[in-house]
Every structure is written in structure tokens, then in C-alpha cells.
Design goal:
The strands form two sheets. A six-stranded mixed beta sheet has the order 4-11-10-6-8-7, with no helix packed on it. Strands 1, 2, 3, 5 and 9 form a five-stranded antiparallel beta sheet that branches. The relative contact order is 0.22. The chain is mainly β and about 170 residues long. The longest helix is centred in the N-terminal third of the chain and has 22 residues. Helices cover about 15% and strands about 45% of the residues.
Amino acid sequence: MRRFFMMVLSLTFMVSAGAFSQGKPYEDGYSFVFEKEGAARSRPYRTTIIPLVPDRVCFGWALRLHNRSTPVQVRETLSVERAPSEWRHRDTTKVAQDRKTGVTTETLTPIDGWIERSWCILPGDPTGSYIFDIEIDGKPVRKFIMCAEPPGQQNCPRYEASLGRAGRKQT
């Protein structure tokens, strides 16, 4: 009887986990910043604050997908409050006429379940909010809100205090 109970409990867990993963295609996600020096890059750290240091600081997002190792179609919409002086981008990014939004469509292959994208700060990039809206395979999945400010200033909301180790808000 105990063996039967354990088998039913295990089956229930597997079915529940499968149902959970169908509702949300990712299991973890966070925004990050890293510094670059030439071709080298520092280890990214989780944050919502982007230091405005042109040609040195880069920022982005990462998502860990449920049981995916095959390529996924990602549509990333990056919106800023004011138009930057310039957008440096590949042909996979289309910039709106008002230059406040860039939409990138790419196929990304998860590495150990993770996908990510990043941008680097350029001279003339604006302060304020940087909002990423992420779609995977045509479905909206996540929004990341970051804020850019010059080093030493504290004009942006401080979300880090409410982030847990895995980048989830603590309650």
C-alpha cells in the first residue's frame, strides 16, 4: 500500500510540474549588468540599475526556460524614455521612427536552459527607464524594468533591496 501511495504521489508531482511549466515557459529570469574592457567582459551581476558609463557598461536580461534545449524565436522590445543619440544594432533590430523603441527578433539556442541578450551603453544614452518586453515563440513571457543613471547619483528606484538571490521579489 505504501509503495502504491508513493507512486501516486510521484505521478501527481510530475503532472503538476508539467502543468506549471505549460503556464509559464520560463522558471527563472533576471536583469543584469557587466563591464567590458576590449574583448573581455566581467562576470554579470543581477541588478536593475544601469550605470551610464559609455563603451564600458553593458546590460541585459536572462531567462531560464523549462526543459528547452532547442532554438526559440525571441522578440525583444526595448523602450527608453528619451531617444538616445544613436542605436548601434544588427539587422535583426528595427528602430522606431521616434528612436525610443528597438525591436529585435532572433533565434536563440538555450545553453543549460538559459537564453540572454544584452546591449551596451553608448555616448548620449538617456537616463531613466529601460524596459524590455520579451516574447518567446510569439507569446509574451516577461517584462524587465531597469533604470539608467550616472555613477554616484541615485535618481533611480532601488529595486535590489527587494530582490532575492534568484532575482525574485521577496515577500
